[in-house]
Amino acid sequence: MLTIFICEDDPYYQNLLYDNIQGAVDWDTFDAELTKPTDDPEKIIKCIQERKYHGLYFLDIELGGGRSGIDVAEDIRQHDPRGFIVFVTSHNKYMNLTFEYKVEAMDYIYKTNNEKIFRKEIKKCIENAHKKHISRIEENCYIFKTLGGQTISCEYEDILLFQIDSSIANRVIVHTKRRQYTIYKSLDKISKELKSNTFYRCHKSCLLNTTNILRRDGAIVFNKEGKIIMQNGAECPVSVRYKSGLKVLANEIVRLR
After folding, report:
1. I need a surface site. Which of 5, 91, 211, 251 has the fewest CB within 10 A?
2. Residue 77 phi/psi, 5° resolution?
3. Which domains can be identified in the chain, with CATH numbers?
4. CB contact set of 43 (below 8 Å; sequence gap of 6+)
5. Beta strands at 215-216 and 206-209: parallel, antiparallel or unpaired
């Protein structure tokens, strides 16, 4: 998922950026989330220090408080070197400085009272960043479309399991650490598309990620019904014929890590 940050000290442009970015994300169903806008760059730096983000940053070059957007961009590069930086500015005189400091801006948006132009530039930046983001992470993510048409890029390590929705044919529920998605696709097709060797078909209705199985004292945890327990408490049925193979793969994955 692409996380979007806004650092702008002018309340008018802060709100304008937020409203138009949120509108673009909602309308075009990008796999992105917009964080709360701020005029304090330290909040953004602290946030990306604490979590691993693939970020898109809209930075006002002329920030108050003794720091410029270029300074903030340099700090961002320390923690998110492949993040996408868009400078928002009233003057083009700062453009050469971004080359001098080698912060590799993806784009520039000039502040204007023409909201239609401003909105168009914002959407172009999001589309560009999202496209590049998806192409970068294909090897480490499973990319799929939800029933609502939203394109989701989910890192393999965040996927718990794929489970057939018994109520509708060819509908699968994707369980991740943060939420669930529903897609129209067979488990057989999903299994062929996955580029990670950590997934195992443990039942005709389930394909699980062995790295996210719950363990106690190193042993895989099963409930009284023989279902395997995932790290978030989700339960996954396991066929007797696949149980030994599951244990072998899960233990091998742990050993290699």
Report:
1. 91
2. -60, -25
3. 2-137 (3.40.50.2300), 141-256 (2.40.50.1020)
4. none
5. unpaired
What number of other Cβ atoms are within 10 A of residue 242's Cβ? 17
Secondary structure (DSSP) of 77-95: HHH-TT-EEEEEES-GGGH
Contact 84, 106 (CB under 8 A): yes
**Do 153 and 134 meet the contact criterion of CB atoms below 8 Å apart?**
yes
201-218 in b/e form (b: 16+ CB < 10 A) is bbbebbbbbbbbbeeeee
pLDDT at 93: 57
DSSP 140-159: TEEEEE-TT--EEEEEGGGE
Question: Which of the listed ranges 125-139, 148-162, 237-251 does the model predict with the highest average pLDDT?
Answer: 148-162
Q: Which of 90-99, 131-140, 221-230 has the highest mean pLDDT?
A: 221-230
Residue 1 has pLDDT above 70, yes or no: yes
HSE-CB at 54 with a 13 A cutoff on CA atoms is 20
Name the residue among 66, 56, 77, 79 with its Cα closest to residue 7.
56
Select, from the ranges 61-70, 98-107, 134-143, 226-235, the one with the highest average predicted confidence (pLDDT). 226-235
pLDDT attached to residue 96? 54
Number of neighbours of residue 99 by Cβ within 10 angstroms: 10
Q: What is the pTM of this model?
A: 0.61
